[in-house]
Amino acid sequence: MSNQFERARLLFEQRRFDLAVKELHQGLAIDPDDASCHRLLALCFAQLNQEKDAIAQIDRAIALEPNHGGAHYIKAGILRDQGNLKAAKSSVLEALRLDPEDTDSYARLAAIQFDQKKPKEALITAEKGLQIDPENIGCMNLRVLSLTELGQLSQAEEEVTASLGIAPENHFAHAVRGWIAFRQHRMSIALESFQTALRLKPDLEWARQGLVEALKAQNGIYRFVLSVDRFRVGMVRGPWMALLLIPQFRALYWLLLLIVVVVRPFFTVLLSFDAYGKMVLTSKEINRSRVVVGIVLAIVLMFLLPILVRSR
Questions:
Q1: What is the pTM of this model?
Q2: What does the pLDDT look like over 118-169, one tens digit per residue?
Q3: What DSSP line would sit under 166-228, residue for residue?
Q4: Of 224, 312, 217, nearest in space to 271 by CA
Q5: Which domain holds residue 256?
Q6: Is residue 206 one of the residues assigned to a domain?
Q7: Cα–Cα distances in Å, from 139 out to 86, 183, 248?
Q8: Which of 132, 225, 231, 309 has the fewest CB atoms within 10 Å, i.e. the most exposed one?
């Protein structure tokens, strides 16, 4: 390992990615074929949201050392962040082919499967990883996440408690705990868990979204709307989907969807007037919600004005 690589690795751990990139470029100027430098440089570019550069560097690392499972694992992570789940899955499967005992690769594969809306497959994959290493935090987290999505909340809660017992500073586990509590309508615990996750990892978008939802769900009307939405989603799963062939059920489905589409942005606008709420919302969320609410109000006025005029 070059001195530049060691310094870059330390800078990477300190999240000083720009400085790490400079050190790695210096190292590659001395040895352009240092695959380790290319791998770490890819991770730095990924953290800096320079996706094309990240892919170029990891592809170079793979070209230099095609049988290095870690490089394929890194590429899978970059591709997943880009939303290219099919290619990400191919990369992580190659990582597992090269190193079938790598539990981190099982965790990444489970995460990709979960992103693909396949929680059952994600659960099976996470459990395969846990058979190799029962304390792999990534696999534990994905197992809990999959159980939560499958509605097995009590078991998921037991699992996440065990996970936090092993790694109490695990931001992901705190976020999962928040979503479990949210599904159970225990909003105070959900808020606390999401806030802890964001304290440990301020850029964890999944936890921020959970915090926003938990803040809105302090209102009973919003909780009712969430129940309506879960019922609506259940209508298009499994054997219930056949009911959509019946016009009355199809009309009910679209009515429920309309209620959710209208009410959710309305509560986002309300939350934006709260000092803390405004802080956790993004400007894009606020602006988009205001547009939706504005359109709805305009449509309502279009129908009400003629009635009001005629009543005079």
A1: 0.74
A2: 999 999 999 999 999 998 988 988 999 899 888 888 898 888 888 888 889 9
A3: H-TT-HHHHHHHHHHHHHTT-HHHHHHHHHHHHHH-TT-HHHHHHHHHHHHTTSHHHHHHHHH
A4: 217
A5: 219-312
A6: no
A7: 20, 21, 43
A8: 309
